Amino acid sequence: MTRVRALLLLAAVAALSACARQIPAAVVASAPGILRGLWDGFIFPWAWLVSLFVPEVSIYAVPNNGGWYDFGYFLGIVVFGVGARKTRIVYRTARTRRRGVVDAKVIRDEEA
């Protein structure tokens, strides 16, 4: 029964979030758009650190042009910024090679 309650709570929160509106003064057509959002998302970690000590520095541009700035900000963080870190080791066993590439024979032997 706890899953049903969790799903009902999630549905209620989703329904309430649909009521949220953006203040019209926060969206300006000539304000920063997708390119500035990409840049702000890319420099997010450094901007956040600086914003802790310098009150004039912000991690998010307000006013902005709305959805396109948000989309650029998201891409800047996830694709080009913090989320872009990739590792070479996908699957690791006790028997790995120097560069982290698992021998296909070892995987077949372990599955059998």
Describe the secondary-structure layout.
Layout: H1 2-17, H2 34-42, H3 44-53, H4 67-80, H5 104-111
Task: Write up this protein.
Helices cover 51% and strands 0% of the residues. With 112 residues, the chain is mainly α. It folds into two domains: 2-80, no CATH class; 88-112, no CATH class. The chain starts with a helix and ends with a helix.
Q: Could you write a compact summary of the structure shown?
A:
The chain has 112 residues and is an all-alpha fold.
List keywords for this structure.
112 residues, mainly alpha, 2 domains, 5 helices, 51% helix, extended
C-alpha geometry: extended
Assembly state here? single chain
Helix content: 40-55%
Order of helices and strands: HHHHH
What's the total count of β strands?
0
Terminal CA distance: 39 Å
How many domains make up the 3D coordinates? 2
Largest sheet: none
* Content of β-strand: under 5%
| Content-based structural category | mainly alpha
Number of helices: 5
